[in-house]
Amino acid sequence: MNNELDRLDVEAFKLASKLPVVIVLDNIRSLNNIGSVFRTSDAFRIESVVLCGITATPPHKDIHKTALGATESVKWSYFEKTVDAILDLKNKGFTIIAIEQVEGSIMLGSLEVDLSEKYALVLGHEMRGVQQELIDLADFCVEIPQYGTKHSLNISVATGIVVWEMFKQLNGSI
Fold first, then answer.
1. What are the residue boundaries of the structural domains of the chain, listed by start?
2. Closest Cα partner for 46 from 66, 17, 72?
3. Is the pTM of this model over 0.85?
4. CATH level 2 (architecture), domain 19-173
5. What percent of the chain has pLDDT over 70?
6. Is the pLDDT of residue 172 over 80?
7. Which listed residue, of 31, 32, 145, 153, carries a Cα 20 to 30 Å from 61's Cα?
8. Which residues, 6+ apart, have CB-to-CB distance to 30 below 8 Å?
């Protein structure tokens, strides 16, 4: 079936060029959200996913339920402390972007990404958001505009929206 859809198999995916984006999940509670982020990461050939704190790691049946095998294709790592993950990524030359509604954040539509840069997107706890100490370490914050009665989006939905915007701008790099 993948052949009919012209999809990569897992081995070809691992060898394929990746979007220079890492997704950092900071203390995500929902296993379904984690699985969905893996699936989005597979769809857009994200470089890797970094799981931190209470965020569960594969293999787990509830992650698998929404990831549908993406935990096999997408590279991932785990850090007990999200700060350590962010500092590691900074040392590797990544631009750190916290996805959060804060004073001074850049609206997603105004985000301009540079083909020569590598990016780490930090998404936070479903109720508390991205920790302040991570916002302080970020190069900047991006906010997704919202016009309804709610003030937040599901973590997996927010990931998909931001990754799609970055993919549109960076698609020449994969």
1. 19-173
2. 17
3. yes
4. 3-Layer(aba) Sandwich (3.40)
5. 95
6. no
7. 153
8. 126, 155
Give the tens place of pLDDT for each residue, 104-162.
Answer: 999 999 999 998 999 999 999 999 999 999 999 999 999 999 999 988 899 999 999 99
- What are the tens digits of pLDDT across the range 9-30? 999 888 889 999 999 999 999 9
Residue given tokens 């109720």 in the structure block = 127
| Residue 10, token pair as written in the block | 């897992």
Chain length of the chain: 174
